[in-house]
Batch of 3 targets.
Target 1
Amino acid sequence: MEKDDFRQNTLETCQSNTLQGNVSIKCNQQPPDSIQNCPNSSPPFGRLPGPTCGHWVQREQLNSKIMWHFVRHWLRTSLQTLKLKGLLHSVKKQEYLTPAILQEMAKRFSCLENLHLEQTSLHSISYDCFPSTLKTLELSQCEIPMVWFNASSNQSRSLPKLENLMLNNVSSFSNHHLETVCSQSVLKTLFLSGTYRVTDIGIQKSLLFLKGLQHLKLQSCNITDIALHLIGCHLKCLQTLALTNISMTDAGLACLSSIKTLEKLWLEYSIHLSSDSIIAVCVTLPALNFLCLNGIFEGHGSIDEIKKKLPNCKVTC
């Protein structure tokens, strides 16, 4: 997908409020001599007014002591969005995030709603440790234990406000993880990319808790037409749907015609789809205004025919 794709569109929709406290902390490929403020760097959702925009630390310095320094002295109490990038795939691995740091963040940052973790090991961190104010949790290339997302015995939900869950190349994420987190949250956005352990069974068990889901992306998951049938039957509030590198056929695609609320649809690298089937489904979706067909009909005239049949829909490839 291009940069202005499913993720950007859904994030803009889900985070319609103006974010005024946004910080990105990561390791720099060519780090400065010491920790320093970088007023010209742009955090993922805008800039933090004043001196604290984005922070860059030396690769070898990203550890729990540095994080304590940021939490206690650099980050404002009005912080709303925080992005952290660790060193999971480097030779020198250091744990920079601990339960104590997360608990301190929960106390100090009552407005923290969006947390993005990249290349971070979460084996020593319980899901319960995350601030209960979070609405968006994004994990990219992170490691999680086999049993996670479980609420402790003294609470029914660990993150009661969680609405948006985005996972990118979290290889250990499984059907059990999916069912558990969906059963404890009222999700509006679910983004699963590179989670190859997720199968039709996981989708089936999770959809019972996703009646209000508005944005769904499934990329390189181990699902088939069965999952598409279930999605068509249960997710009647979907506004955006992205299916990338999924094993689906015309029969599975036909199941999506029942989602009348669908506005944006990505069908990428699904080589078994025919232009006639795509047209037949899309003409039944009255709200559809965007269709992406990357990697399907490159170099063929089928795109022109689809554009002609869908005059009110922007078709890209």
Target 2
Amino acid sequence: MQTLFNLTDLITWVVVIVIFLGIVLPQMFKIMREYERAVVFRLGKFYMTKGPGLIILIPFIDKIERVDLRVLTINVDKQEIITKDNVTVHVDAITFFRVVDAEKAIINVEQYHAATTWLAQTTLRSVLGQAELDELLAERDKINRQIQEIIDQHTDAWGIKVVTVEVRDVVLPESMQRAMAQQAEMERERRAKVINAQGEFQAAAKLVEAGKMIEQTPVALQLRFLQTMSEIGDESSTHTFLPIPMNFLEAFKPTIQDASGKKATANVDPGDMDMDDPGIETKSSGKKSGGSESGQSGKKSGGSRKKSGGGSKEE
């Protein structure tokens, strides 16, 4: 009987010790992963930050809070925002952040993940409300950087570092989409007209240069004439054309007389000639001058005859 009693006591003590160790050991030893940190509170006061690896605590006295140091994501729900130019859009975003100071993340804010989420939503609405629609669509990187800086500035006291913020989707009203499509179409038409006008301007400039070259070298015009004839002859349609020599038009140019009385062909406009020049006289002016001289001489001779006749009568 005594042996049985001793065995029962032994079993009882073993069970008590096992239960005690089962309760105490998990409270005494903790294993932290590489990306985890343990914020230790001893009797309610901050003691230190431990980890990673095996850490030893005082059971029932030390309490810990685990903090994940990996990059976390926040999906900012779609927000209805009125831009600076009074356009209603629906925008959602995603925020990437991580904890850099586990002590501040636990002590300075109650729930750092929820607090960062609400801060990201309010900052998104505030920043996009100060931007115009064109800026929101064209300068997305600038807006993302501005939102990141504002959130990072507010969460610095919480021991949180905002890695990046990305505006993910911008939903426009259907009326605005149609207006933007019409604007883009008109812009393409304007560019096409500008390009066409530039082409016409360049073509005109080249034609002016070609005219100056042909003026300096008249043979080039004859070559161009022959080339045009060759192009017309290569076509399948039938054309009838009469080639005229290039010097045919020279017969219609006005002729002038030099100081020696020889005729010469004038290459200038007769209207530009100085008609008072005594060395150059046109045919028409010569005829007029000859007629006027003969008329004047006739008048003078007639007058002298009348005078002579009158004198004879007086005698």
Target 3
Amino acid sequence: MAGGVDGGDGARARQHVFLVPEYLKDAAEKMKTGLMFVKLVNPCSGEGAIYLFNMCLPQLFEVKVFKEKNHSWFINESVQSGGLLHFATPMDPLFLLLYYLIKADKEGKFQPLDQVVMDDMFPNCALLLKLPELEKLLRHVTEEKEIDKKKYYKYSKEKTLKWLEKKVNQTVAALKTNNINVSARVQSTAFFSGDQVSSDKEEDYIRYAHGLISDYIPKELSDALSKYLKLPEPPAAVPNPPSKKVKLSDEPVEAKEDYTKFNTKDLKTVKRRYWSLNLGPRAC
């Protein structure tokens, strides 16, 4: 866990506890060329979100937060209130690339990738162009042309829906393998009445997996995917449902704080099954 660090004025620095895969330990020790927090677009909302980028591989990780009430961390000789637990998990970068490809498709023409993945609000999107096997990834969602040994790309909705269907099927398989009950969650999300509750069935798995994938794609594409999967409209909801789904305390939410300010600081590690990042500033 992160160690306690005093600021120059004697005040206890705020610290954060992160869980990341252990294999990133070597990357963290090479801060400037290793792990870096970056602010990139959220491909679902179009707003900014914090990601962790491994410059060594390179590899992209999304950052999520678990928040529980009345929870604190004991860090060395100090107590860190708030009890937030941050964790980074590998993310398919194609979801972010897809966001820019869909946006560029409004021009209706083939374009070089470096002219597609451009964003004045999130200039670090250029890091996506350094990812390995980039051309192989793009084949899942684009049409491709080569002119004078330079490649040009155009978004393909047909290819994208086939690729997303595979993602849904992979998610369904993972849910079943891990014996995760989805019926109650699907029915709770849709606010079904009590007599509509049933045991897990294939449609529930597909609908739940579709919901998970929809967190990474624009709503218009999510709706198109639902039709592509031939998901029936959910039964009528119970009267007066809440205006939006309420996230439970044990569900991960998107990290809001801007951790890019820690990119110039040391990342210290503790040897565990997972290891954590010390984000406290150095003592003056």
